[in-house]
Design brief:
heterodimer; A: 441 residues; alpha/beta; 2 domains; ten-stranded mixed β-sheet; nine-stranded mixed β-sheet; 19 strands; globular; B: 478 residues; 12 helices
């Protein structure tokens, strides 16, 4: 415990001693405001409702050091997605790596770092920074805000259709555990369309490093964003991240999440409906094994009428791993005619695996239709028997069924190239079945 | 249409009279002396006093829970009187004839004439008035069968071994804030023991009533069903209308030994406060049962009263093949708030549980289902099915669902489903088109919504529950 205190102390000291000077005064003001909220917030313990099933003990080994110089050996194959035709932005340990990035494709999107933003972009950042995550009570959001010196802005102007943008966060092998923060701001204006892939990759065993990545999304009237957040880092990593989105009238958000387990992976997803007629599809897959831990907390804030949510999360837990899912749908009194559905299905593959799921409904309006369902079970015995009776070995049949359980969601993604990229990665988890990887049901 | 609904909602609390009975009440406040006084008044043995004091020590260290989805001014525990008994109890009545006629009138007003009900319905009633058990009917007949059904204060003297063995065995003193408080100051309640292999010849019943102002009621019920036995137990509650909030913190413990079955039904109709949300009972209840091998515990509850309800009847499925059931209808109206649900803790193999919860919110009320289903590592082939549906009547109320599902066994299956909707206009239209008046139609629809739960209630209660629902809903159709 004293060592956890150590991390808290380190963080607190670091934040309070943190240089609030900056060439841009508004950014310094923002940090200051976030620092205040950070210091007002209680450090989460197991008694904190939102952290009931996720222990932060693993932070004992974490360290608040800044990452040292990134090693030059970076395995580009760890994140390359074939046939995506996207701009690629590569960040190594939270720092932009221009040499590995490809920004040459003409894309209708303006992409820049906060530190290199022009006047117009600065105005955008100033306007939207911290807005979508404004109601967050997560201390790591405020920690992130307190230390925001730079970040990534992707801006799609009114009526434009941008080609996909692939944002890679690569964790290099550090000799010492380190903590890195990163911040994304995506602004898609009225009637514009965009696709962004947030991709987290790393080399093996760079032990105990902590990454805190916060994404804020602003969708204008009738804007449409395809968003992917893929957590494929090494299992030694600790990730405490969040995605917050504001949706204006008739905006549409398709957000797909995937996480392989890590020491702790905790991702908060929040969608704020601010204009009527907005819709979001939030789907996700989590796969854990060994002693990994994944925690997804989702929150749908229906504050206005006529919005719809469709949310499906599926998880498979093996070995000693543990997963947590908390899906909240909050219907405010004005949000009449809301339709919201949430489904969470889980497969446990081992006697030691564990799932804690809590689909929550909080409803203050009467003319709405809301439903949620959650199941936890083993593989369907009938399906298993069917395959066995056709001469397929038990092992292989189990693999096929597990894969099928999540392939359904992967089939639903809009960008074919991402599905094609993910299938072999997942198939490998279930024992590297070549024909599974190729199956495109 | 809305007017009709409102009219229906605004019906009065029918059990809100005060009975003028001279009582013996301890001044408000809580300290060790109060506990000693309560214990002395009941002539309790030393061990029970120790037990109470231990609970009190634990309680002092505990924090009032704040996690529930409830908003209410804090209870001032110093302003509550922890003991109130009708004076006439001093020289205990031997039979019903000796009971204070005023008291009996109270029960008649409540619609439970002891004599009639005892004879006609064949129900044995233990009525708890404020804090003391006033009469237990049909005791002789039960004794014949070997069933013990008596006030717990009496059982302490008559059956000390049983009480010593089972009191606090399911809900220990330090279980939670209100349970600890109850352990320290519990005044009376019912004790039931069904011997091995006996099927209780009639349904047992308790009526609770808080009469005296500014008193809290802390009853404690302990039911032990020995191997292979069966008992069905009914519980009903009412209180007079008063402006201030009154506290009710009860503990119910059920022990179902091997092959035993306990069916526990509650119709809770404490005073819910007036239409402005003034007054009403704070109902903080801990109910839990433990199932040994092949045993079954079934909770059925109809909750229409109380300003605040904080109640989670639970089952610990300890033995293999044991079964837990929870059927609940919770209706809130005006400014009532309910945070209620169940816990099913699966420890043994092949254990099964079913949860059916129906929440109805009307007026400005908040109604939350909070449940936990836990599959422990030993719960091989365990099975749970949960369904919680909410119905909203009016646009100012809230319906919430907080189900916790924790599974640690791959061969355990948990299913949870929840829906929320309002009384559908189509259904209402269909009924009206066939000449059914709107208020009648809503009552029909709501009754249909709750049918799965009502059919689990014993017959006499099912009728009462249906009526209660109708009355509580009056004026809420929209």
């Amino acid at each position: 415990m004293s060592e956890t205190m150590n991390f808290i102390d380190q963080a607190t000291t670091f934040v309070s001693s943190h240089e609030s000077q900056s060439k841009t005064q508004w950014l310094a003001d923002f940090r200051l405001q976030q620092q205040t909220r950070f210091s007002q917030n209680q450090w989460p313990t197991r008694k904190t409702e939102n952290w009931k099933y996720t222990s932060l003990n693993a932070l004992q080994q974490a360290n608040f050091n800044q990452p040292s110089q990134a090693s030059s050996t970076i395995d580009e194959s760890a994140y390359a997605i074939e046939n995506l035709n996207a701009q690629t932005l590569v960040f190594v340990d939270g720092v932009f790596d221009a040499t590995r990035s490809q920004l040459d494709i003409d894309s209708n999107a303006s992409v820049c770092l906060f530190s290199e933003a022009n006047e117009k972009q600065q105005a955008l950042i100033q306007n939207y920074l911290g807005k979508a995550s404004g109601n967050s009570s997560n201390i790591f959001t405020h920690l992130n805000g307190s230390l925001t010196h730079d970040g990534l802005l992707i801006h799609v102007a009114k009526g434009q259709t941008a080609s996909p943008i692939h944002v890679v966060h690569y964790a290099s092998s550090q000799t010492q555990a380190a903590t890195a923060q990163s911040r994304h701001l995506f602004v898609v204006e009225d009637n514009a369309q965009a696709a962004v892939i947030e991709h987290f990759a790393s080399v093996e065993s760079n032990g105990n490093s902590l990454f805190n990545q916060l994404t804020e999304i602003e969708l204008g009237n009738n804007a449409h964003l395809h968003h992917y957040r893929l957590h494929l880092e090494d299992e030694q990593m600790i990730h405490l991240g969040a995605m917050h989105a504001n949706l204006q009238r008739d905006a549409q958000l398709n957000s797909f999440h995937l996480a392989l387990g890590g020491k702790i992976k905790r991702i908060d997803i929040e969608v704020n409906y601010q204009g009527s007629g907005a819709h979001s599809d939030v789907n996700g897959v989590y796969l854990t094994k060994n002693r990994q831990h994944v925690d997804y907390h989702t929150n749908m804030e229906h504050a206005v009428p006529h919005c719809t949510t469709s949310e499906v999360f599926r998880g498979i837990m093996d070995d000693n791993s543990k997963a947590v899912f908390n899906g909240r749908i909050h219907i405010h009194p004005q949000a009449q005619k809301t339709l919201a559905e949430l489904s969470n299905k889980n497969l446990l593959l081992s006697n030691k695996a564990e799932i804690n799921t809590k689909p929550e409904l909080e409803i203050y309006a009467d003319d709405v239709r809301c439903a949620h369902g959650a199941t936890v079970s083993q593989m369907d015995n009938n399906a298993l028997f069917y395959l066995l009776s056709r001469g397929i070995s038990r092992e292989e049949a189990e693999r096929m069924l597990s894969f099928g359980f999540i392939n359904e969601l992967i089939d639903g993604v809009k960008h074919e190239a991402i599905g094609a990229y993910l299938r072999p990665v997942i198939a490998e988890l279930f024992g590297n079945q070549q024909h599974l990887a190729e199956c495109d049901l | 249409m809305t007017d009709v609904i409102n009219e229906r909602i605004e019906s009065d609390y029918k059990a809100g009279f005060v009975t003028d009975v001279e009582t013996d009440t301890i001044p408000p406040g809580l300290n060790e002396d109060v506990i000693r006084t309560i214990s002395a008044k009941k002539g309790e043995p030393e061990w029970l006093l120790e037990w109470r004091l231990k609970a009190f020590a634990v309680w002092k260290e505990m924090q009032e829970p704040e996690w529930a989805h409830l908003k209410y001014p804090k209870v001032e525990f110093d302003k509550v009187s922890y003991y109130s008994a009708p004076k006439s109890m001093e020289d205990k009545p031997k039979s019903l004839d000796e009971v204070d006629p005023e008291l009996l009138k109270t029960y008649e007003k409540l619609g439970i004439p002891l004599h009639e009900q005892a004879i006609l319905a064949g129900v044995a009633v233990d009525a708890v008035f404020d804090s003391v058990s006033v009469a237990t009917t049909f005791r002789d007949k039960l004794e014949e069968a070997g069933v013990i059904f008596c006030p717990i204060s009496e059982a302490v003297h008559k059956y000390p071994d049983l009480i010593k063995k089972y009191l606090g065995s399911v809900v220990p003193q330090k279980d939670n804030f209100y349970a600890a408080l109850n352990c320290a100051v519990f005044s009376d309640g019912s004790f039931v023991y069904i011997p091995k292999g006996v099927r209780c010849p009639m349904e047992l019943s308790t009526y609770f009533r808080i009469n005296e102002a500014k008193t809290g009621q802390f009853e404690r019920t302990l039911i032990v069903a020995d191997e292979g036995s069966y008992v069905s137990y009914l519980e009903g509650c009412t209180a007079p209308m008063r402006d201030e909030n009154q506290l009710h913190a009860a503990v119910v413990e059920l022990v179902a030994m091997k092959d035993a079955e306990i069916k526990y039904s509650t119709v809770q109709n404490w005073y819910p406060g007036d239409a402005e949300g003034k007054g009403g009972i704070y109902n903080f209840v801990t109910k839990r049962g433990i199932c040994h091998q092949n045993a079954k515990i079934s909770w059925t509850q109809v909750e229409t009263g109380s300003a605040i309800t904080w109640k989670y009847p639970s089952v610990v499925l300890k033995g293999d093949n044991s079964i837990g059931e929870f059927y609940s209808v919770a209706l809130t109206n005006n400014y009532q708030q309910a945070d209620t649900g169940t816990k099913m803790i699966h420890l043994g193999k092949n254990t099964r549980s079913t949860i059916i919860s129906k929440g109805i919110s009307a007026g400005k009320s908040q109604n939350a289902y909070r449940g936990l289903v836990r599959m422990n590592p030993g719960a091989e082939n365990a099975r749970n099915y949960t369904q919680c549906d909410s119905l909203l009547i009016g646009d100012q109320c809230g319906a919430h669902t907080f189900p916790y599902i924790e599974s640690k066994h791959p061969a355990a299956v948990v299913e949870h489903e929840a829906t929320t909707s309002k009384v559908s206009d189509d259904q209402l239209f269909l009924c009206q088109q066939r000449g059914i008046e709107p208020e009648k139609a809503v009552s029909m629809i709501v009754n249909g919504f709750c049918k799965e739960v009502f059919k689990e209630l014993p017959m006499e209660f099912a009728v009462e529950a249906g009526k209660l629902l109708e009355v509580s809903l009056e004026g809420s159709v929209g």
